[in-house]
Amino acid sequence: MNWLSPAELRIGLGCMRLSTDPGRDEERAHASIAGAVAAGITVFDTAHAYAHSETELGHNERLLAAALRACGAAGAARIVTKGGMTRAGVAWLPDGRARAIRMDCEASLAALDGLAIDTYLLHAPDPRTPWATSIRALAKLREDGLVARIGISNVNRRQLDEALELAPIKAVQVALSVVSDAALRGGLVERCDELGIALIAHSPLGGPRRAASLASREALAAVAADHGATPAEVALAWLLSLSPSVVAIPGARRPETARSVARAATLTLTDSDRAALTPELHTPPSGPAPGDADVVIIMGIPGAGKTRLAGEYVSHGYERLNRDERGGSMRGITRALDERLGDKARRVVLDNTYLTRAARSHVIETAARHGVAVRCLWLNTPLAQAQVNLVSRLIALTGRVPTPEELREVARAHEGVMAPTSQMRALRELEPPSRDEGFADVEELAFARVTDHRGGPAVLVAAAALGLPSWQDAIAAADPSAPHLVFDWTPDASSTRLDAGVARLRGVVGGIVDGALCPHGGGPPRCWCRPPLPGLALAFVAAHGIDPSRSIVIGSGPAHRTLANALGARHIPVVP
User: If you count Cβ atoms within 10 Å of the first and of the last residue's Cβ in the chain, which end, N or C, has fewer?
Assistant: First the structure.
């Protein structure tokens, strides 16, 4: 890795909590930064969004710049900051639009008041913005000379590989510690090491809640005692021993803590120390497997159709392990698999999301300890089809399309229920499975919707289409006796266009003509009823016993074509 010179410590200072803690103390923050500088630390991690709320964005950058100047280190510090994240009160919302990334970078430069940005990171993927759009915007910052280097944060290996095709990524920042090893299991550490990319480990002690429990970990405490060090220092030294590409950035809110984390860079662990602390990955089979033993992972994004496929395996004698039925955590499911294989269970199917290599690694290793290979079935369902599945389940659970507030309540009671943005985020996080993870076989399955064709047809009409001159031609091509739905959404929740459309339609067709409006505001969709999401259409379908595949969607743009395709309906465009 050529980012830091050999003389520089691979320990930096994470400055986030100096601005985000409720009881922050700026005088103590200045002393902590000065203590880090005195201990030889040169890397300082910040972000434009590190603040109490959106009213003081840039607080952490201003604090860091002032502290570095005060202790005479402004010219020697390597500042790593991040953009592409906005705040709504105390909430954190990724914003990966090109304009937002540019504006955040310019705001960071202003907050740093003349101090250079060594490395600028995209704070997190935005599920609403194409990944390529965000990465190209990031690359433009470097091309225009605003920053020296660029990188990405909170990503998996697939996202890194995709970013590298578009930009010279020099750093990746992810959570990594003795208690959070997803980046290690998911192959991200290996990939960064292979390509000479700096892997900046945030939360390297496990985060505020888990850091306090490090001393209770027997292996960590034993190694610390052998070296006359603290468990936290040994945890950081272990992290640095994983790869020369790793740079750890623990937070330090007191000068003595800053000095302690710097000492971790001077510890040298033995091979036996590292073996005691490092989780075993890809454990080899411990003995011969039963001849008919078979463990099957069915994976895919929420709404992919995993439950139906798992049911087919259950009907052939497989035992199902699933969070929908059992509750608890994914680790709990893995422990249940360990118990069942220990009890000589022969056939087990696990149908959870398993989006990442890291998530799947636990199942592969557990089965391997019992000498059992794992097969993977990947339901590669398009997002629009998965949305239909998820909303259909919601309507079956609640009898309607829930409001955002009701949706949160339902999600607490039922695994797999979520808001649209959460499902989009799952798609962004998905890492396609590969045999090099340790699978005996990987099979990709295309989604095929099953319908019994018992219902009748319907006509689903976008209100915007009814305001175009040729709308009557489109309506004439549909069955006038079929139930009709006019659906709409406007940012101000006005029903004017919807009411006008319903009135026009009732003047030319007989039978049922209903109107449905999404009343929820703009921004990231918090509900499933904002067109072209399928909530309004599917609620109408359920209420009237409709077969969507026999229906027609009359629309005014590409989004309505997408809706028609997702429903399996015919699409009739109204041309302006």
Answer: C
Mean pLDDT value of segment 479-504 = 94
Three-class SS state of 480: coil
Mean pLDDT of 88-109: 94
Distances (CA, A) of 285 to 1, 83, 196, 291, 337: 35, 45, 32, 14, 15
The pLDDT tens digits for 183-221 are 999 999 999 999 999 999 999 998 877 877 888 888 899
- The DSSP secondary-structure symbol of 298 reads E
**Contact yes or no for 386/302 (Cβ under 8 A):** yes
The dihedral over CA atoms of 341, 342, 345, 346, expressed in degrees to the nearest 10, equals: 60
Whether residue 283 has pLDDT greater than 50: no
Q: Find out whether 8 and 228 touch, Cβ atoms under 8 Å.
A: no
Segment 64-83 mean pLDDT: 96
Q: Which of 82-108 are b and which e, b meaning 16 or more Cβ less than 10 Å from the residue's Cβ?
A: bbbbbbeeeeebbbbbbebbbebbeeb
Residue 513 has pLDDT above 60, yes or no: yes
**177 DSSP assignment:** B
Q: How far apart are CA 110 and CA 61, in angstroms?
A: 9
Q: How many whole angstroms separate alpha carbon 384 and alpha carbon 251? A: 41
How does pLDDT run across 335-368, given as a tens digit for each residue? 999 999 999 888 999 999 999 999 999 999 999 9
Query: Which residues are identified as catalytic?
Result: 50
Q: Please count the other Cβ atoms lying within 10 Å of the Cβ belonging to residue 7.
A: 7
Name the residue among 150, 136, 270 with its Cα closest to residue 200: 150
DSSP helix/strand/coil, 44: strand
Which residue in 186, 195, 168 sits closest to 430, CA to CA?
Answer: 186
Phi, psi of 486 (to 5 degrees): -105, 125
Distance CA 480, CA 505 (A): 10
pTM for the structure as a whole = 0.80
Q: What is the pLDDT of residue 2?
A: 56
Q: Quick one: which of 487, 481, 471, 538 has its CA closest to 512? A: 481
> Six-digit token pair at 518?
């999404």
3-state secondary structure labels for all residues of 228-257: CCCHHHHHHHHHHHCCCCEEECCECCCHHH
Q: Which amino acid is at 112?
A: L
CA distance 298 to 281: 21
